[in-house]
């Protein structure tokens, strides 16, 4: 029952609100039709009137715009005209700054006029021309004034710069303005400011700066004897040079800086202490002066010149003078301070000062540079100027400091022989003095000097600051790396063509390798403390140098072997020696080979160490003998006469071959080596056995073979011996019996 009541109640409340909503709809409909009527009215009548009004308005607006434009153009033309008039007045009164400013005003008026689109006036062209003419006019006047203010008196330009031409250069600066100009302020200021207003100052100053560098500043750096000389007359200040004192190579930085300061002070006083713009009340301080502008233009070139031609030369070359360098650094600082005060320089520590302060590193660089240049000159000098070295020769050097002496190293000048004194190794065992000794041979004197340079440099390193010590140590390593790269390339052709040079180069490399074994060792006390993990060693370079020497010499050996085989190839295979022509060819080939070997024996004499000499000559003689054996053993038919002639050719080789062994200049000492030839020539016995076969009968050959245990069997195989028997003997039963025994 209650639910029904609730529904009724809600329904009764709902009905009246439903009613009022319907009324509202009716009202809205009525309003909407009213609006439609109104809209129709507006569209027909009001709109028409409105269009007319807008049209009138925009016409008036355009009229106004046109008038305003014409007015502003007339105004600009008037401004232009006034500016030009005032410019002319100012120019007549020599008020250059004012004149220049008026000209710039006229210029900006003209710019405005030209920027109006759709409004080209014939007159603008004429105005532009007028402006150009007037600008040239004032620049001409200013130029005349500027030339009176700073007058250069220079030698004829054809002359190259020299001390003489510097002596004839003068700069005259005008000091007092003539009376009628007093009004315009100092003429210098007004002329330069007017240039600035017209944007021409840069060009003028640049030319002035270049003249200043060329005729005054740079000569002061290049010619130590030049002294600046100033003279003040009534209205002009003259700056020129006198030449005093000895003509040294380089002047000290202190002197150069003092002379420069004088020049800049004069310029500052009479010419450059001028602000570029007219004073502006609120920013008195920030005005750029002329000095700054000129400084910007010339400082970089001037400072480079000071570094290259003055500071570089003042870097000491030995460590003892480093202390005194403090003076140079101080005077560089003062020079910069003075220039800053005159506003030639802005900002802090320039390259000049950085360079001076970095003296330790420059000292090391200069030292290393000198070392490398010296080394390079030695490497590119002639190889064939030689010196003889022997096991007891050594590099003469100042004595090394005692390892215990710590850092206050007292250098003794007594010369102590370095290497073949007993080398004292870490474990204190004493080695014989010949453990590390070199065989007697010849090396290039340039290489001996190179080694001395390396020792001297390491010695200097041990007495230097840590940084310098490290640099010097590495520059010594660089010397050797450089040798490795430069020498084989630089001397390439000669090393290929000339057997003697190849031998000397081989010795040079072995000599260097020998020294590199112990080089770091003598300096280890000082070097290992600084170089990380005690890398003060050169041992790692040793194998490379040995290889370098070997490869070059082996290449030369290959050339010589090639020539021997080439000569023997013309011997007609040693066949048919009973033919006269064939015999002559073979004989000639053998003579040529002996001649070649003899010549080599001479050029290598006293150059190569004896053992290397004997091995090399032995190898080449062996090449010849081996080739002859191969050719003869390959023959299919050898007549009795052939055999005799072959035997005599072989005898020539055996008799004259050993005589090419002449390792020493003293003949009597060479006998020993000639007797030892069989030791150095592998095929010597083979060759002798072949000669025996050429002369022997069948029985003798069988005896020499001795069931494969005789001397013949040691040199030839059964097949080779059988082949020789078949060539030498006719086919008989005795030959068959002999052949049967060779197996």
What does this structure look like?
The structure is a single chain. The protein is mostly helical. Among the domains are: 3-148, Orthogonal Bundle (Isoleucyl-tRNA Synthetase, Domain 1); 154-176 and 185-279 and 287-347; 590-741, Tetracycline Repressor, domain 2. Helix content is 67%, strand content 6%. The protein has helices spanning 2-92, 96-115, 122-149, 163-167, 187-197, 201-222, 253-272, 290-314, 326-341, 351-357, 359-379, 445-462, 466-490, 492-497, 499-522, 524-530, 542-568, 580-603, 610-633, 640-656, 667-675, 677-680, 684-695, 698-705, 711-715, 718-728, 733-741; strands at residues 150-153, 170-174, 226-232, 236-243, 386-389, 396-399, 412-417, 441-444. The strands form three sheets. A four-stranded antiparallel sheet has the order 1-2-4-3. Strands 5-8 form a two-stranded antiparallel sheet. A two-stranded antiparallel sheet has the order 6-7. Strand 3 and strand 4 form a beta hairpin. Helix 15 (499-522) packs antiparallel against helix 17. The longest helix is centred in the N-terminal third of the chain and has 91 residues, at 2-92. Residues 180-184, 279-286 and 397-435 have low confidence and may be disordered.
Using brief descriptors, characterize the structure shown.
Tetracycline Repressor, domain 2; Isoleucyl-tRNA Synthetase, Domain 1; two-stranded antiparallel sheet; Centromere/kinetochore protein zw10 homolog; mainly alpha; ER-Golgi transport; 6% strand; 743 residues
């Amino acid at each position: 029952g209650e639910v029904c009541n609730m529904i009724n109640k809600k329904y009764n409340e709902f009905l009246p609100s439903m009613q009022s909503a319907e009324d509202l709809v009716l009202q809205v409909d009525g309003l909407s039709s009213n609006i439609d009527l109104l809209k129709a009215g507006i569209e027909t009548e009001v709109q028409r009137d409105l269009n007319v009004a807008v049209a009138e308005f925009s016409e008036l607006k355009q009229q106004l715009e046109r008038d305003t434009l014409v007015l502003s153009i007339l105004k600009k033309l008037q401004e232009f005209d006034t500016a030009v008039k005032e410019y002319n007045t100012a120019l007549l009164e020599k008020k250059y700054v004012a004149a220049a400013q008026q000209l710039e005003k006229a210029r900006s008026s003209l710019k405005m006029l030209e920027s109006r689109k759709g409004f080209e006036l014939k007159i603008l062209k004429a105005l532009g021309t007028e402006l150009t003419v007037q600008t040239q006019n004032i620049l001409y006047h200013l130029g005349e004034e500027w030339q009176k203010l700073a007058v250069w008196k220079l030698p004829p330009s054809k002359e190259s710069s020299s001390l003489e031409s510097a002596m004839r250069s003068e700069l005259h600066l005008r000091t007092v303005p003539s009376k009628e100009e007093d009004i315009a302020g100092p003429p210098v200021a007004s002329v330069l400011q007017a240039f600035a207003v017209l944007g021409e100052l840069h060009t003028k100053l640049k030319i002035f700066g270049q003249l200043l560098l060329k005729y005054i500043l740079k000569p002061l750096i290049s010619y130590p004897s030049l002294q600046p000389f100033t003279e003040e007359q009534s209205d002009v200040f003259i700056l020129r040079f006198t030449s005093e004192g000895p003509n040294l190579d380089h002047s000290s930085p202190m002197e150069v800086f003092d002379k420069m300061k004088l020049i800049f002070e004069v310029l500052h006083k009479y010419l450059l202490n001028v602000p570029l713009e007219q004073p502006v009340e609120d920013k008195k301080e920030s005005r750029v002066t002329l000095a700054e502008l000129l400084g910007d233009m010339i400082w970089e070139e001037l400072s480079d010149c000071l570094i290259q031609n003055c500071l570089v030369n003042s870097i000491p070359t030995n460590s003892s003078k480093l202390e005194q360098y403090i003076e140079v650094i101080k005077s560089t600082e003062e020079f910069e301070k003075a220039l800053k005060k005159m506003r030639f320089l802005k900002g802090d520590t320039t390259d000049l000062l950085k360079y001076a302060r970095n003296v330790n590193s420059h000292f090391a660089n200069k030292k290393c540079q000198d070392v490398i240049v010296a080394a390079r000159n030695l490497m590119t000098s002639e190889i064939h100027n030689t010196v003889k070295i022997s096991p007891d020769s050594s590099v003469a050097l100042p004595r090394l400091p005692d390892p215990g002496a710590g850092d206050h190293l007292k250098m003794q000048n007594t010369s102590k022989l370095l290497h073949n004194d007993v080398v004292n190794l870490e474990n204190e065992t004493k080695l014989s003095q010949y453990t590390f000794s070199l065989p007697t041979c010849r090396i290039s004197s340039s290489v001996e000097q190179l080694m001395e340079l390396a020792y001297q440099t390491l010695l200097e390193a041990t007495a230097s600051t840590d940084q310098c010590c490290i640099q010097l140590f590495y520059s010594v390593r660089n010397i050797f790396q450089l040798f490795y790269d430069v020498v084989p390339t630089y001397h390439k052709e000669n090393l290929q063509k000339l057997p003697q040079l190849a031998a000397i180069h081989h010795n040079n490399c072995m000599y260097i390798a020998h020294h590199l074994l112990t080089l770091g060792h003598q300096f280890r006390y000082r070097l290992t403390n600084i170089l990380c993990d005690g890398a003060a060693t050169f041992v790692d370079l040793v194998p490379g140098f040995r290889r370098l020497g070997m490869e070059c010499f082996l290449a030369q050996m290959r050339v010589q072997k090639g020539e021997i085989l080439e000569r023997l190839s013309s011997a007609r295979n040693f066949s048919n020696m009973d033919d006269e022509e064939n015999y002559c060819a073979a004989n000639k080939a053998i003579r040529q080979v002996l001649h070649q070997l003899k010549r080599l024996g001479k050029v290598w004499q006293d150059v190569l160490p004896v053992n290397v000499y004997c091995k090399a000559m032995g190898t080449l003689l062996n090449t010849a003998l081996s080739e002859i054996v191969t050719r003869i053993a390959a023959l299919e038919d050898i007549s009795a006469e052939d055999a005799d002639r072959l035997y005599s050719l072989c005898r020539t080789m055996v008799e004259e071959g050993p005589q090419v062994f002449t390792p020493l200049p003293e003949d009597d000492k060479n006998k020993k080596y000639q007797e030892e030839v069989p030791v150095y020539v592998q095929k010597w016995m083979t060759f002798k056995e072949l000669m025996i076969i050429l002369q022997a009968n069948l029985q003798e050959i069988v005896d020499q073979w001795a069931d494969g245990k005789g001397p013949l069997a040691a040199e030839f195989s059964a097949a080779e011996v059988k082949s020789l028997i078949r060539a030498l003997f006719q086919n008989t039963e005795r030959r068959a019996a002999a052949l049967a025994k060779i197996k």
